[in-house]
């Protein structure tokens, strides 16, 4: 899960760099490829990561009868709300990004909107990832036993077998 967080940060940075460099104008080959790759990454990988947390990890933490887990419940509710915010932002970013790829340009207002969405999403992810990396995941590592953690890993792997990702991606190659 932490490795996915690093990829979120990387691809969000790619999107911001393309917007800042090309400013909604025509895309050179490198920007076009970077934009396309980052958009596809978020379209395929982000929903799987959300499922990894919401269908595999969070339910196991909710089922614990450990006093330390009580604190986790508040975090989980906040994290789930942030997942919904990110999904909404990604849907609009997707629309604007693929429009840019199709038309080779964005209007100034769409460019401003895309920049604003990416900046806000970056702020959300910074807070969200920090909370997961420093609080939730270490606590999950302490509270869940080895069979539970292995089950989470198997479920995560199964999601990638059922939906291997974009042709040519690392997930598709597995």
Question: How would you characterize this protein structure?
Answer:
By secondary structure, the protein is mainly alpha-helical. The chain is 86% helix and 0% strand. The chain contains six helices and no strands. Helix 1 (2-22) packs antiparallel against helix 2 (29-62), helix 2 packs antiparallel against helix 3 (67-103) and helix 2 (29-62) runs antiparallel to helix 5. The radius of gyration is 18 Å and the shape is elongated. The chain starts with a helix and ends with a helix. 20% of the residues are buried.
Which residues sit in consecutive blocks of at least 5 with pLDDT less than 50? 169-174
Biggest sheet details: none
- Going by helix content, strand content and strand pairing, the class is mainly alpha
Total beta strand runs: 0
- What portion of the residues fall into strands of 2 or more residues? under 5%
Mean of residue pLDDT?
89
What spatial form do the alpha-carbon principal axes imply? Answer: elongated
Number of helices: 6
Task: Report the span from N to C terminus.
Answer: 17 Å
Question: What is the string of helix and strand elements?
Answer: HHHHHH
Rg is 18 Å
Helix content: over 70%
